[in-house]
Design goal:
This protein folds into two domains: 3-193, inorganic pyrophosphatase (n-terminal core) (Alpha-Beta Complex); 198-315, Roll (Diaminopimelate Epimerase, Chain A, domain 1). Helix content is 40%, strand content 17%. Helix 4 packs antiparallel against helix 5 and helix 5 (145-158) packs across helix 7 (185-194). The protein has helices at 3-13, 27-42, 94-99, 128-138, 145-158, 169-180, 185-194, 198-210, 226-231, 243-247, 277-283, 301-315, and strands at 17-21, 48-49, 78-82, 102-107, 118-121, 212-214, 219-224, 254-260, 265-271, 287-288, 292-297. Strands 6-7-8-9-11-10 form a six-stranded mixed sheet. Strands 2-1-3-4-5 form a five-stranded parallel sheet. The structure holds guanosine-5'-monophosphate and manganese (II) ion (MN). Guanosine-5'-monophosphate is lined by residues 85-86, 89, 109, 111, 268, 286-289, 292-296. The site of manganese (II) ion has 6 residues, from loops.
Length: 316
């Protein structure tokens, strides 16, 4: 029996199911979680999807009003984590996962620690939503307009609008199929990727102003503080995309963006061609993908900057 047969078996058996994803969820996390929610309902299940906080740009997705912030269920029969590489990144809601009778991880991070009892991880997939798409085909779930819109959201956000190297012909075939079903791809694209909140614009402007170059212009570095976020009244996800400002400058190979948090700082790294930022972040205790990775560090922005630049110097 394949892993997918085992997962299907567990879904059929389970009376209570919870869907979880990583903290600070992005479009892939929310899109995949909701697509799975709709799919399990189609399979006759009544799952919970628990996401305490998410960027309001995703509020238009079907059934976001059914997302729970917490649950009274202490021990689910089945917990499914999507788009999450480690148990640590489930953070505040890891207990729902750990307490469940059976735990499943569906993901696309090469640094996934295989923390489930059953793990279905495809590191080559450009988005976890695309991994789920393959699973739904295997399960004979009909990809409805609602499921398609959620999956499309995951793919658009994790591929930067179909432009990253992980995009495959399957990605475009899926999108073509959605268009045939009458989904307005351009409209979803504008909502989930193109339109920025005012706070996001203000933070991007601040970060751009502070951007510094290192290593002959091959490294771009910038940051935002908690105070900055308070000043612009930032909400969940308003820091998203700032790291791309540095990445897209001619000559830059690695872009580093630090966001000050309650516990220290959250680092985002992007590379263009030859630097594996997932390896760099792994050394510092984080992970991710070759060209997009991150790490949480319990220190000041200045200390994190120094540590990171030292690691980058060795690989640039
Ligand atoms: P972002 O910079 O957009 O927050 O994250 C980029 C990628 O790195 C995402 O795929 C994300 O899951 C991964 N990532 C970010 N922070 C961490 C971390 O602390 N640990 C691990 N393992 N992966 C991370
Ligand atoms: Mn993802």
């Amino acid at each position: 029996m394949s892993t997918l047969d085992n997962i299907l078996e567990e879904i059929k058996k389970a009376e209570t199911i919870v869907i979880l994803t990583h903290e600070n969820p992005d479009g892939d996390a929310i899109g995949t979680a909701l697509a799975l929610y709709h799919s399990l309902q189609q399979m006759g299940k009544n799952p919970d999807v628990i996401i305490p906080e998410y960027p309001r740009i995703f509020a238009f997705l079907p059934k976001t009003d059914e997302i729970k912030k917490e649950s009274a269920v202490e021990k689910y029969d089945l917990a499914i984590s999507v788009d999450c590489a480690t148990i640590k990144m489930l953070n505040g809601f890891a207990n729902y996962f750990e307490n469940a009778k059976v735990r499943v991880s569906i993901d696309h991070h090469s640094t996934n620690t295989m923390f489930g009892d059953l793990n279905y991880v495809s590191p080559d997939a450009p988005a976890c939503a695309q991994v789920l798409l393959g699973i739904l085909e295997y399960f004979n779930v009909e990809v409805t307009k609602d499921i398609g819109t959620c999956i499309l959201t995951g793919i658009i956000t994790d591929t930067g609008g179909f432009k990253y190297s992980g995009v495959t012909s399957e990605t475009f075939q899926f999108v073509a199929g959605l268009m045939e079903k009458g989904i307005n791809v351009s409209k979803v694209y504008r909502k989930v990727l193109q339109t920025k909140t005012r706070a996001n614009f203000e933070l991007t402007r601040l970060a751009a102003d502070r951007l510094e170059f290192f290593e002959d212009g091959k490294v771009a570095f910038t940051y935002i503080t908690k105070e900055d976020e308070e000043k612009v009244n930032a909400g969940s996800g308003d820091h998203e995309g700032i790291v791309e400002t540095g990445r897209d400058i001619e000559g830059v190979e690695v872009s580093i963006f630090i966001r000050e948090t309650e516990k220290g700082c959250k680092v985002s790294m992007r590379s263009n061609e030859y630097v594996n930022v997932s390896d760099v972040c792994l050394l510092l205790g984080g992970g991710g993908h070759i060209h997009a990775a991150g790490v949480s560090m319990q220190c000041s922005i200045e200390q994190a900057k120094e540590k990171i630049l030292r690691q980058i110097k060795a690989v640039i």
